[in-house]
Amino acid sequence: MAWILLGIAGLLEVVWAFFMKQSHGFTRIGPSAITLVAMIASFSLLSISMKTLPLGTAYMIWTGIGAVGAFVLGVALLDEQLSVMRIVAALLIVSGLILMKLSTAS
Description:
The chain is mainly α and 106 residues long. It has helices at residues 2-22, 29-49, 55-77, 84-102.
């Protein structure tokens, strides 16, 4: 169950990062509100998952999902640059996440 909660927490990190960008420095109410609600939910689920998962594993997986997810959304929805080096960087993050999951007993 901790892994599922951690995955949801990571996806919520992508949500809040995307809407933080859309908030234009917290000057737009709707995106700002979504950012704050998603942040609170993401942190809460991360906290719950950390009750049984190791700190380093939980935090790395959470930030990794957020980083790769934000990269994908940026490219897909915000017209951000896509290059071979950026793709390789994202793949290295995903590889690290897989290795971290495989090396954790919980």
